[in-house]
Amino acid sequence: MNILESKMTYLLLWIVTFIAFTPIDAAEFKIKPKDIRITINQQATFNLTLDEDIKVPVNVSFDIPHPDLLKIEPKYLIYQKKSQVMIKVFGINPGSLVVSANVTPANQTIFTQAFVRVTIEKSDTLYHISNIVGWIYFLAWSISFYPQIYSNYKRKSVVGLNFDFVSLNIVGFLMYGLFNCGLYWIPEIEEEYFNRNPKGLNPVQLNDIFFSLHAFAATAFTIAQCFIYETGDQRVSTTARIIHGIFTTIILVSVILSIINYLTWLDFLYYCSYVKLAITLIKYVPQAYYNYQRKSTVGWSIGNIFLDFTGGMLSMLQMILNAYNYDDWWSIIGDPTKFGLGFFSVSFDIFFLIQHYALYRMNTSLSILLRSVRSNNVQTRQLNCWTAAITKKHRKIYERTYPALLVHPDGSSINVQYFEPRKIVVLPLDLSTLTEAERRARIERRKPKTVVKIEEELEDDFDENRYVNMRKY
């Protein structure tokens, strides 16, 4: 009997606890809209609604994490009947916070969705400027892929574009696209995110999905160019393959753990984002080192760098504008990931600009000049399987440069790195720099000279009749 009594006591306690913490009615408090943006010393309103009548009156108050930022009127309400009340919000100081409704007694209604996110800004003009800056850097980053694609198409070559950079880039955008598409389009993952962040917003917007998918497609097109155009002896390095192997192992293990329900699919997407973060930190290193090895930036589009630099600077500018407008400098100092990534990318862009315009400027300029001279003065041979040659077939593009003596039209010479193995390269003379007399003299020397042939007159007094009698009949 003692065992039976203990079981009955335990069951009774469980029933009482369940009744005490379960809402008697299905009535629910809701707040609309969920997001409010106001300026200092201005007001806005939201509606607090009870969707059904309840038997017991309840008291409603508002939990304000930072009372110095805003003021709410009325502060306290009593509900019993189905009704809707308009609540006024006054902005005092800039910032952002979540205002939640507290209901007592708590077991009478459901009020998990009774909250509103309030943002108080210093200036509405700064808000619109920040939006414009955001769209500009979004466009700059979106079109930054095309200068490299056009350069490859124009040169019919990808020599100068590092394959490690391209391979890391496409993996990074693939991970970024998986994170955005999964969190935006899969309801189960989105629900899991809101279970962890019940008062948060989905961090993925439609423009994030467009950018990630567009970036993946543009990078894939660049890789396709690497299979079509001249590549030299480039290949993906062993170091890059090891890095790809590490990332692949992480993703495969995460997928397996998610399939057996050891990890949630939201955690899998977070691991994808971590891989993207790591790739962003290291992807520029191979290209910078490759430029250093070649002592040239030919083949690496500087237009891509300008657009990426513009996007990175405007991204950090938007963060600074928002931090000032909302007085939220902790968004930069406390969570430096986004700002740090933007600063890291901009730093590499500055380094690439220094390489292009300062360190390897002479090699790049001479390479462009000498290529134009070769294209204007050298006839290309159309070689096929029916063509026989007594010399080797010359390459169109060489992987590295060679020391050569560059002779100027005035006779001076300098040592340069030429893109073909030649000892001496002579630049053509610009006739526009000559005087009129010099130009005429040089043109006269170019004209073909008339060859005067002198024919000698030979005296021929041979008479065949003198030898008639010697004929034999």
TrEMBL record:
GO terms for molecular function: L-cystine transmembrane transporter activity; structural constituent of ribosome; symporter activity. The chain crosses the membrane at residues 126-146, 166-186, 209-230, 242-262, 268-286, 298-321, 341-360. The keyword Signal applies. Residues 1-26 form the signal peptide. It is a multi-pass membrane protein. Pfam families: Mitoc_L55, PQ-loop. It catalyses: L-cystine(out) + H(+)(out) = L-cystine(in) + H(+)(in). InterPro entries: LC_transporter, PQ-loop_rpt, Ribosomal_mL55, Ribosomal_mL55_sf. GO terms for cellular component: lysosomal membrane; mitochondrial large ribosomal subunit; phagocytic vesicle. Cystine/H(+) symporter that mediates export of cystine, the oxidized dimer of cysteine, from lysosomes. May play a role in the degradation of engulfed apoptotic cells. This is Cystinosin homolog. It comes from Aphidius gifuensis (Parasitoid wasp).
